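Continued from yesterday's entry.
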Amino acid sequence: MKICLAGAGAFGIKHIEALAKIDGVEVTSLVGRAREATEEVAKRYGIGHVATDLSESLARSDVDAVILATPTQMHASQAIACLAAGKHVQVEIPLADSLKAAESVHAAQQASGRVAMVGHTRRFNPSHQWVRRKVKAGELHIQQMDVQTYFFRRTNINALGQARSWTDHLLWHHAAHTVDLFAWQTGGDIVTAHAVQGPIHPALGIAMDMSIQLKVSTGAICTLSLSFNNDGPLGTFFRYIGDTGTYVARYDDLIDGKDNRIDVSKVDVSMNGIELQDREFVAAIREGREPNASVAQVLPCYRTLDRLERQLASQP
């Protein structure tokens, strides 16, 4: 399978390295905003074609599928372009920065019949998979999730410390992880959603702190705290409080409520959530099936984000 990777930044490189571990997969084209920097990444990883315009890569016969690790504001339009060109597409989270755009991608996927998947990585992390297996087996019923998503982002920089050309967003990007995971793990529909946010940053134009409360149809609740003002420790911590145990997940690590480490190394073929996400994308294409975290499956998450955005807009 020949894949085009659009986005030569920090997350794009994670996908390149993940795809290199999947048999029969080759990244044949790399798309980036700055040609010189993109060529450097392509040379480092042995990618033969470089472009600064996605349409150039979509026209190539040696591209079967596309992974979009581009700025959030480009996700929906680029995903639709990929599907229109007959290419399968995986869009990094978030699918879009508005419900209307997310629904447009879903419509394009339905019309094309191609695989369209969103990078909701938490569905693939072994730590969260381990919890899900206990839930599916009836050994754990989630009563509450308490989640902290904390970063230090007072300037526009990426995970490599490089300047970004776009502005990240707590609601449409980082909250999307938890909103989707909460509904997926509990097996319920979100019936209640409330949010408040802190002051808008004068230069970035976004809220730097936010608090969200959710409830699903099973009765489980979720409290999510997000910040771009937090100066460490950084990352996201998920606390699952269930009827038979408490578990805390951070990326691919998992501990119980007594701080005992749980071995999740045998849950899947890798401990790398991005690799497992990419493996699912490739497998779904090869098997002609809907992938886990398909556009259709994650669309309810974006409906909730839209609901929260409208709620925030109405607050003083």
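--- second protein ---
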Amino acid sequence: EPPRRIEGIDIAHLHGDEAVGSLVSFQDGLPSKERYRRFRIKTAPGGDDFASIREVAARRYGRLLQEGSQLPDLVLIDGGLGQLRAAEAALAPMGLLSGDAPRFVLAAIAKKEETVFTPAHPEGLRLPRRSPALRLLQYVRDEAHRFAQHYHHILRRKRVMDE
């Protein structure tokens, strides 16, 4: 079945400074802005996108599990196979990706070639350029990127003003 609820994750930083993560949520193909979340990266070394993705995924889905909240149908990571593996490393110990019925689908979409990676398809999937599914994934990815960049710029401006 097509995913009804999709969450997208992206990381933003400038040479490791003011590293942040973003999470956007889409319901039935439309942004659900009240579910958007911002994360200051706390434990990952500056500039380590993989560690930052692990941190954001662990914090977000660990909390949803702890609260007993509804999980999305699809989690989309902005990036390629490395970013997918980083999210997988955070989510697998929680039991979200294992078993006969994983709790949700995990995927990543790489920008340049628009290749979609999943744990079941690490070689990548190429959807037709005009595919509505690809366009939705691009929309989620681009919105996560925009939201992460916006938060990063807010923190950078605040730091400059404080200095």
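The chain has three helices and eight strands. The helical segments are 49-67, 81-91, 132-162. Will compare against the first tomorrow.
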